[in-house]
Input
Amino acid sequence: MNTQEALYLNIIDNLKDGVYFIDLERRIRFWSKAAERITGYTQAEMLGTSCQQTFLNHIDEEGRPLCIVGCPLFDTLGDGQPRQARVFVRHKEGYRLPIHVNIFPMVVDGKITGAVEVFTADSDTVYEDRLVEKLTGIAMHDTLTDLPNRRYLESFLDYKLSEFARFDRLCAVLFADIDDFRVFNNTYGHDVGDLVLKNIAASLKSNTRKNDLVGRLGGEELLGIYSIADPASAPIVAEKLRRLVESTEILHGDGALHVSVSVGVTVVRPGDTLNAIVKRADDYMYRSKQNGKNRVTADEDMG
Output
Protein backbone atom coordinates (compact mmCIF):
# COMPACT_ATOMS: atom_id res chain seq x y z
CA MET A 1 0.00 0.00 0.00
CA ASN A 2 1.44 3.35 -1.01
CA THR A 3 1.32 6.54 1.05
CA GLN A 4 -1.64 8.01 -0.82
CA GLU A 5 -3.72 4.82 -0.42
CA ALA A 6 -2.90 4.73 3.29
CA LEU A 7 -4.02 8.36 3.60
CA TYR A 8 -7.35 7.66 1.91
CA LEU A 9 -8.01 4.62 4.10
CA ASN A 10 -7.16 6.62 7.20
CA ILE A 11 -9.65 9.32 6.16
CA ILE A 12 -12.38 6.74 5.53
CA ASP A 13 -11.71 5.02 8.85
CA ASN A 14 -12.22 8.31 10.66
CA LEU A 15 -15.59 9.10 9.10
CA LYS A 16 -18.72 8.83 11.24
CA ASP A 17 -20.49 7.02 8.42
CA GLY A 18 -19.96 3.32 7.87
CA VAL A 19 -18.33 2.34 4.57
CA TYR A 20 -17.90 -1.01 2.90
CA PHE A 21 -16.93 -2.24 -0.55
CA ILE A 22 -18.05 -5.39 -2.38
CA ASP A 23 -16.56 -6.95 -5.51
CA LEU A 24 -18.47 -8.39 -8.46
CA GLU A 25 -19.07 -11.62 -6.55
CA ARG A 26 -20.68 -9.56 -3.76
CA ARG A 27 -17.85 -10.38 -1.35
CA ILE A 28 -16.95 -7.73 1.21
CA ARG A 29 -13.42 -6.44 0.56
CA PHE A 30 -13.38 -3.40 2.87
CA TRP A 31 -15.18 -2.73 6.18
CA SER A 32 -14.51 0.58 7.92
CA LYS A 33 -14.11 1.35 11.61
CA ALA A 34 -17.43 3.21 11.64
CA ALA A 35 -19.10 0.18 10.03
CA GLU A 36 -17.79 -1.83 12.97
CA ARG A 37 -19.13 0.70 15.46
CA ILE A 38 -22.59 1.04 13.89
CA THR A 39 -23.25 -2.69 13.36
CA GLY A 40 -21.11 -4.33 16.03
CA TYR A 41 -19.38 -6.57 13.46
CA THR A 42 -15.58 -6.40 13.17
CA GLN A 43 -13.46 -6.36 10.04
CA ALA A 44 -12.27 -9.87 10.84
CA GLU A 45 -15.87 -11.11 10.89
CA MET A 46 -16.89 -9.39 7.65
CA LEU A 47 -13.96 -9.37 5.23
CA GLY A 48 -14.17 -12.09 2.58
CA THR A 49 -17.78 -13.00 3.31
CA SER A 50 -20.56 -12.55 0.79
CA CYS A 51 -23.48 -10.24 1.51
CA GLN A 52 -25.83 -13.22 1.73
CA GLN A 53 -23.63 -14.98 4.30
CA THR A 54 -23.53 -12.14 6.80
CA PHE A 55 -25.98 -11.69 9.65
CA LEU A 56 -26.77 -8.10 8.65
CA ASN A 57 -29.87 -9.38 6.86
CA HIS A 58 -31.01 -6.05 5.39
CA ILE A 59 -34.76 -5.60 5.00
CA ASP A 60 -36.58 -2.65 3.48
CA GLU A 61 -39.55 -0.74 4.90
CA GLU A 62 -41.93 -3.19 3.22
CA GLY A 63 -40.32 -6.14 4.98
CA ARG A 64 -38.55 -7.57 1.94
CA PRO A 65 -35.27 -9.41 2.67
CA LEU A 66 -33.01 -7.43 0.36
CA CYS A 67 -30.13 -9.92 0.23
CA ILE A 68 -32.55 -12.35 -1.41
CA VAL A 69 -35.04 -10.37 -3.44
CA GLY A 70 -33.82 -6.84 -4.14
CA CYS A 71 -30.29 -5.93 -3.16
CA PRO A 72 -29.57 -2.30 -4.21
CA LEU A 73 -25.83 -3.06 -4.18
CA PHE A 74 -26.42 -5.87 -6.67
CA ASP A 75 -28.49 -3.55 -8.85
CA THR A 76 -25.68 -0.97 -8.88
CA LEU A 77 -23.17 -3.66 -9.86
CA GLY A 78 -25.36 -4.38 -12.86
CA ASP A 79 -26.32 -0.95 -14.16
CA GLY A 80 -23.72 1.39 -12.61
CA GLN A 81 -26.38 3.71 -11.21
CA PRO A 82 -26.01 5.24 -7.71
CA ARG A 83 -28.84 4.56 -5.27
CA GLN A 84 -30.22 5.68 -1.94
CA ALA A 85 -32.47 3.75 0.42
CA ARG A 86 -33.69 3.51 3.99
CA VAL A 87 -33.31 -0.02 5.31
CA PHE A 88 -33.14 -1.96 8.55
CA VAL A 89 -29.99 -3.86 9.47
CA ARG A 90 -29.52 -6.43 12.21
CA HIS A 91 -26.98 -5.33 14.83
CA LYS A 92 -24.67 -7.97 16.27
CA GLU A 93 -26.49 -7.67 19.61
CA GLY A 94 -29.70 -8.78 17.93
CA TYR A 95 -31.80 -5.66 17.50
CA ARG A 96 -32.86 -3.90 14.29
CA LEU A 97 -31.31 -0.55 13.43
CA PRO A 98 -32.70 1.82 10.77
CA ILE A 99 -29.97 3.14 8.47
CA HIS A 100 -29.82 5.38 5.43
CA VAL A 101 -27.59 4.03 2.65
CA ASN A 102 -25.90 5.69 -0.32
CA ILE A 103 -24.57 3.31 -2.94
CA PHE A 104 -22.34 4.03 -5.91
CA PRO A 105 -20.25 1.95 -8.34
CA MET A 106 -16.48 1.63 -8.36
CA VAL A 107 -15.25 2.02 -11.93
CA VAL A 108 -11.72 1.24 -13.13
CA ASP A 109 -10.71 1.80 -16.77
CA GLY A 110 -14.36 2.17 -17.73
CA LYS A 111 -15.45 -1.11 -16.13
CA ILE A 112 -17.43 -1.67 -12.93
CA THR A 113 -15.23 -3.52 -10.44
CA GLY A 114 -17.51 -3.37 -7.41
CA ALA A 115 -19.81 -1.13 -5.40
CA VAL A 116 -19.48 0.99 -2.27
CA GLU A 117 -22.13 1.49 0.38
CA VAL A 118 -21.94 4.45 2.76
CA PHE A 119 -24.44 4.16 5.60
CA THR A 120 -25.56 6.27 8.52
CA ALA A 121 -27.70 5.39 11.52
CA ASP A 122 -31.04 6.97 10.60
CA SER A 123 -32.49 7.17 14.11
CA ASP A 124 -31.62 6.54 17.73
CA THR A 125 -34.65 4.23 17.86
CA VAL A 126 -33.96 0.50 17.69
CA TYR A 127 -36.45 -2.29 17.09
CA GLU A 128 -36.79 -5.68 18.72
CA ASP A 129 -35.60 -8.16 16.11
CA ARG A 130 -38.11 -10.91 16.82
CA LEU A 131 -41.01 -8.51 16.28
CA VAL A 132 -39.53 -7.26 13.00
CA GLU A 133 -38.88 -10.81 11.84
CA LYS A 134 -42.44 -11.79 12.71
CA LEU A 135 -43.94 -8.88 10.80
CA THR A 136 -41.65 -9.61 7.85
CA GLY A 137 -42.73 -13.24 7.90
CA ILE A 138 -46.39 -12.28 7.87
CA ALA A 139 -45.89 -9.97 4.91
CA MET A 140 -43.88 -12.45 2.84
CA HIS A 141 -45.30 -15.88 3.76
CA ASP A 142 -48.54 -17.77 3.25
CA THR A 143 -50.43 -18.01 6.55
CA LEU A 144 -51.53 -21.64 6.15
CA THR A 145 -48.32 -23.30 4.98
CA ASP A 146 -45.69 -20.73 6.02
CA LEU A 147 -44.28 -21.05 2.50
CA PRO A 148 -43.21 -17.90 0.63
CA ASN A 149 -46.27 -16.17 -0.82
CA ARG A 150 -46.87 -14.69 -4.28
CA ARG A 151 -45.31 -11.36 -3.32
CA TYR A 152 -42.12 -13.01 -2.08
CA LEU A 153 -41.95 -15.35 -5.09
CA GLU A 154 -42.34 -12.55 -7.62
CA SER A 155 -39.69 -10.40 -5.91
CA PHE A 156 -37.27 -13.34 -5.84
CA LEU A 157 -37.94 -14.21 -9.49
CA ASP A 158 -37.36 -10.59 -10.54
CA TYR A 159 -34.02 -10.81 -8.78
CA LYS A 160 -33.12 -14.07 -10.53
CA LEU A 161 -34.04 -12.61 -13.93
CA SER A 162 -31.71 -9.69 -13.21
CA GLU A 163 -28.93 -12.13 -12.32
CA PHE A 164 -29.41 -13.90 -15.63
CA ALA A 165 -29.53 -10.69 -17.66
CA ARG A 166 -26.35 -9.31 -16.09
CA PHE A 167 -24.26 -12.37 -15.24
CA ASP A 168 -25.79 -15.25 -17.29
CA ARG A 169 -26.70 -17.17 -14.13
CA LEU A 170 -29.28 -19.76 -15.07
CA CYS A 171 -32.44 -20.44 -13.14
CA ALA A 172 -35.37 -22.79 -13.62
CA VAL A 173 -38.98 -21.96 -12.85
CA LEU A 174 -41.29 -24.77 -11.81
CA PHE A 175 -45.10 -24.60 -11.74
CA ALA A 176 -46.89 -27.40 -9.86
CA ASP A 177 -50.58 -28.04 -9.30
CA ILE A 178 -51.97 -30.71 -6.96
CA ASP A 179 -53.95 -33.20 -8.99
CA ASP A 180 -57.72 -33.42 -8.39
CA PHE A 181 -57.45 -31.35 -5.22
CA ARG A 182 -61.08 -30.22 -5.35
CA VAL A 183 -62.21 -33.83 -5.48
CA PHE A 184 -59.90 -34.60 -2.56
CA ASN A 185 -61.38 -31.73 -0.53
CA ASN A 186 -64.94 -32.78 -1.34
CA THR A 187 -64.19 -36.37 -0.36
CA TYR A 188 -62.23 -35.86 2.87
CA GLY A 189 -63.08 -32.29 3.88
CA HIS A 190 -61.20 -29.01 3.80
CA ASP A 191 -59.48 -29.66 7.13
CA VAL A 192 -57.78 -32.70 5.64
CA GLY A 193 -57.03 -30.69 2.51
CA ASP A 194 -55.33 -28.03 4.64
CA LEU A 195 -53.31 -30.75 6.35
CA VAL A 196 -52.18 -32.00 2.95
CA LEU A 197 -50.90 -28.53 2.07
CA LYS A 198 -49.12 -28.20 5.41
CA ASN A 199 -47.44 -31.61 5.09
CA ILE A 200 -46.32 -30.91 1.53
CA ALA A 201 -44.96 -27.54 2.65
CA ALA A 202 -42.97 -29.18 5.46
CA SER A 203 -41.44 -31.65 2.98
CA LEU A 204 -40.52 -28.88 0.54
CA LYS A 205 -39.01 -26.59 3.19
CA SER A 206 -36.74 -29.33 4.47
CA ASN A 207 -35.53 -30.14 0.95
CA THR A 208 -34.96 -26.68 -0.53
CA ARG A 209 -31.48 -25.20 -0.84
CA LYS A 210 -30.65 -21.79 0.60
CA ASN A 211 -30.42 -20.06 -2.79
CA ASP A 212 -33.70 -21.54 -4.10
CA LEU A 213 -37.30 -20.75 -3.25
CA VAL A 214 -40.52 -22.77 -3.35
CA GLY A 215 -43.77 -21.12 -2.39
CA ARG A 216 -47.54 -21.13 -2.67
CA LEU A 217 -49.11 -18.97 -5.35
CA GLY A 218 -52.56 -19.68 -3.98
CA GLY A 219 -54.98 -22.58 -3.71
CA GLU A 220 -53.22 -25.77 -4.75
CA GLU A 221 -50.61 -24.05 -6.95
CA LEU A 222 -46.90 -24.02 -6.11
CA LEU A 223 -44.05 -22.14 -7.75
CA GLY A 224 -40.39 -23.07 -7.46
CA ILE A 225 -37.38 -20.97 -8.50
CA TYR A 226 -34.05 -22.79 -8.64
CA SER A 227 -30.48 -21.83 -9.46
CA ILE A 228 -29.09 -24.41 -11.90
CA ALA A 229 -25.75 -25.08 -13.56
CA ASP A 230 -27.19 -26.21 -16.90
CA PRO A 231 -30.59 -26.69 -18.56
CA ALA A 232 -30.46 -30.47 -18.10
CA SER A 233 -30.77 -29.93 -14.34
CA ALA A 234 -34.25 -28.39 -14.60
CA PRO A 235 -36.32 -31.57 -15.16
CA ILE A 236 -34.26 -33.34 -12.48
CA VAL A 237 -35.21 -30.68 -9.94
CA ALA A 238 -38.86 -30.87 -11.01
CA GLU A 239 -38.91 -34.66 -10.77
CA LYS A 240 -37.49 -34.47 -7.26
CA LEU A 241 -40.36 -32.18 -6.20
CA ARG A 242 -42.92 -34.45 -7.86
CA ARG A 243 -41.60 -37.45 -5.93
CA LEU A 244 -41.49 -35.52 -2.66
CA VAL A 245 -45.17 -34.70 -2.97
CA GLU A 246 -46.07 -38.22 -4.06
CA SER A 247 -44.30 -39.72 -1.04
CA THR A 248 -45.87 -37.31 1.47
CA GLU A 249 -48.36 -39.14 3.71
CA ILE A 250 -51.38 -37.72 5.50
CA LEU A 251 -52.62 -39.98 8.27
CA HIS A 252 -56.38 -40.47 8.07
CA GLY A 253 -58.37 -43.02 10.02
CA ASP A 254 -56.53 -46.33 9.92
CA GLY A 255 -54.53 -45.50 6.84
CA ALA A 256 -52.66 -42.80 4.98
CA LEU A 257 -53.72 -40.55 2.13
CA HIS A 258 -51.54 -39.42 -0.76
CA VAL A 259 -51.77 -36.81 -3.49
CA SER A 260 -49.77 -36.11 -6.64
CA VAL A 261 -48.79 -33.02 -8.62
CA SER A 262 -48.53 -32.21 -12.28
CA VAL A 263 -45.44 -30.13 -12.95
CA GLY A 264 -44.17 -27.83 -15.66
CA VAL A 265 -40.60 -26.54 -15.62
CA THR A 266 -38.70 -24.17 -17.88
CA VAL A 267 -35.29 -22.53 -18.00
CA VAL A 268 -34.82 -18.76 -18.23
CA ARG A 269 -34.29 -17.39 -21.74
CA PRO A 270 -32.90 -14.09 -23.06
CA GLY A 271 -35.57 -11.41 -22.90
CA ASP A 272 -37.76 -13.32 -20.45
CA THR A 273 -40.10 -11.33 -18.23
CA LEU A 274 -41.62 -12.53 -14.99
CA ASN A 275 -45.01 -13.07 -16.65
CA ALA A 276 -43.51 -14.82 -19.66
CA ILE A 277 -41.48 -17.40 -17.77
CA VAL A 278 -44.25 -18.17 -15.27
CA LYS A 279 -46.81 -18.56 -18.08
CA ARG A 280 -44.48 -20.93 -19.94
CA ALA A 281 -44.08 -23.11 -16.84
CA ASP A 282 -47.85 -22.96 -16.30
CA ASP A 283 -48.51 -24.06 -19.90
CA TYR A 284 -46.13 -26.98 -19.42
CA MET A 285 -47.97 -27.93 -16.24
CA TYR A 286 -51.24 -28.11 -18.18
CA ARG A 287 -49.53 -30.34 -20.71
CA SER A 288 -48.65 -32.68 -17.82
CA LYS A 289 -52.33 -32.67 -16.80
CA GLN A 290 -53.40 -33.55 -20.34
CA ASN A 291 -50.89 -36.39 -20.57
CA GLY A 292 -52.07 -38.27 -17.49
CA LYS A 293 -51.15 -36.10 -14.48
CA ASN A 294 -48.49 -36.88 -11.84
CA ARG A 295 -45.71 -36.13 -14.30
CA VAL A 296 -43.20 -33.46 -15.35
CA THR A 297 -43.16 -31.57 -18.65
CA ALA A 298 -40.03 -29.54 -19.44
CA ASP A 299 -38.65 -27.42 -22.28
CA GLU A 300 -37.17 -30.46 -23.98
CA ASP A 301 -40.58 -32.17 -24.07
CA MET A 302 -42.14 -29.29 -26.00
CA GLY A 303 -39.68 -29.38 -28.96
Notes: Residues 3-135 form a domain with the Beta-Lactamase fold (CATH 3.30.450.20). The longest helix spans residues 150-167.
